[in-house]
From TrEMBL:
<dbReference type="InterPro" id="IPR044074">
    <property type="entry name" value="PurU_ACT"/>
</dbReference>
<keyword id="KW-0496">Mitochondrion</keyword>
<dbReference type="GO" id="GO:0009853">
    <property type="term" value="P:photorespiration"/>
</dbReference>
<keyword id="KW-0378">Hydrolase</keyword>
<dbReference type="InterPro" id="IPR045865">
    <property type="entry name" value="ACT-like_dom_sf"/>
</dbReference>
<keyword id="KW-0809">Transit peptide</keyword>
<dbReference type="InterPro" id="IPR036477">
    <property type="entry name" value="Formyl_transf_N_sf"/>
</dbReference>
<dbReference type="GO" id="GO:0005739">
    <property type="term" value="C:mitochondrion"/>
</dbReference>
<dbReference type="Pfam" id="PF00551">
    <property type="entry name" value="Formyl_trans_N"/>
</dbReference>
<protein>
    <recommendedName>
        <fullName>formyltetrahydrofolate deformylase</fullName>
        <ecNumber>3.5.1.10</ecNumber>
    </recommendedName>
</protein>
<keyword id="KW-0554">One-carbon metabolism</keyword>
<feature type="domain" description="Formyl transferase N-terminal">
    <location>
        <begin position="126"/>
        <end position="303"/>
    </location>
</feature>
<comment type="similarity">
    <text>Belongs to the PurU family.</text>
</comment>
<comment type="function">
    <text>Deformylase involved in photorespiration. Prevents excessive accumulation of 5-formyl tetrahydrofolate (THF), a potent inhibitor of the Gly decarboxylase/Ser hydroxymethyltransferase complex.</text>
</comment>
<dbReference type="GO" id="GO:0006189">
    <property type="term" value="P:'de novo' IMP biosynthetic process"/>
</dbReference>
<dbReference type="GO" id="GO:0008864">
    <property type="term" value="F:formyltetrahydrofolate deformylase activity"/>
</dbReference>
<dbReference type="InterPro" id="IPR002376">
    <property type="entry name" value="Formyl_transf_N"/>
</dbReference>
């Protein structure tokens, strides 16, 4: 059950039905006021009466204004999730005080997760991109990043395939000062220690069609989130050349799945899925093109959602995506 809550609804009883409400800000937009700046807060704890009121009062007491509020309380589960978008005056409510005030509420409710992001003040997430031979996802992400539509700092690109220096990708990376690391791998040596050293200072990793399986030791050593793009709706065609497998099988619907990486192959919590219809009129070339378009759109959307604090863990292998 997803509940969108207006400010007026904050004082209502916990079990009362709350209809969708959206305020005068469709998204986080610093142009709302020359003084007020946008922030976002996510909260995850055991469900209880008064959580919404407490969080709303926290913002209002400092002169802030809520632009949007999403709440999810799973049926028959004593769990509460929320995500709020708000604007505030950083002079009246300093950035460090914002954290302290929300942390006080988190401690009162024994919250499992309470995170604040203020895009205009906080540093962007630092990421590294890993890929193999196919580069359509990398190209899409680089262009989105260049246009300012992907709120990250790309620290480096790592690949187990070497690329010529005169290619479009290598020229782009050189022009923008993004290091490219060629790390050749074999079945016997995945060179994970070297990769781990290259990505140690990042906030999360993106596998942009990296066709190597990361070991449990690597995931434990890294200790942060890794996001992957899978060539289909999980579960799906496995092994090499999945588009041709699907084409030969005559499927009528193709898809792409972006998910968190776990030790169990292609079984991590799903962040985003996209689908598109195909027919007998598609040849293999158009089939592959549609599949690649889905992959790059799906991965980019998943990363954007993650950076905007829209993705929260739910249960053992699911996500809440606001």
């Amino acid at each position: 059950m997803i509940r969108r809550i207006s400010q007026r609804a904050c004082g209502f009883a916990k079990n009362q039905f709350l209809k969708s409400s959206r305020f005068h800000g469709e998204s986080l937009d610093s142009s709302v006021s020359p003084v007020l700046i946008p922030g976002v807060h996510v909260f995850h704890c055991q469900d209880a009466v008064g959580i919404v009121a407490k969080l709303s009062d926290c913002i209002a007491a400092k002169g802030g204004n809520i632009l949007g509020y999403d709440v999810f309380v799973p049926e028959n589960k004593n769990v509460f999730y929320s995500r709020s978008e708000f604007i505030f005056d950083p002079v009246k409510w300093p950035r460090n005080q914002v954290d302290e005030d929300f942390q006080t509420i988190a401690q009162a409710y024994g919250a499992l997760n309470s995170v604040v992001r203020v895009p205009s003040i906080d540093p962007k997430y630092k990421i590294a991109l890993l890929l193999s031979k196919q580069d359509h996802c990398l190209v899409e992400m680089l262009h989105k990043w260049q246009d300012g539509k992907l709120p990250v700092d790309i620290t480096c690109v790592i690949s187990n395939h070497e690329r010529a220096s005169n290619t479009h990708i290598m020229r782009f990376l050189e022009r923008h000062g993004i290091p490219y690391h060629y790390v050749a791998t074999t079945k016997e040596n995945k060179r994970e220690d070297e990769i781990l050293e290259l990505v140690r200072d990042t906030d999360f990793l993106v596998l942009a069609r990296y066709m190597q399986i990361l070991s449990g030791n690597f995931l434990k050593g890294y200790g942060k989130d890794v996001i992957n793009i899978h060539h289909g709706l999980l579960p799906s065609f496995k092994g090499g050349n999945p588009a041709k497998q699907a084409f030969d099988a005559g499927v009528k619907l193709i898809g792409a799945t972006s998910h968190f990486v776990t030790e169990e192959l292609d079984s991590g919590p799903i962040i985003e899925q996209m689908v598109e219809s195909v027919s007998h009129r598609d040849n293999l070339r158009s089939f592959v093109q549609k599949s690649e378009d889905l992959e790059k759109k799906c991965l980019t959307k998943a990363i954007k959602s993650y950076c905007e604090l829209r993705v929260l863990p739910y249960g053992t292998n699911k996500t809440v995506v606001f």
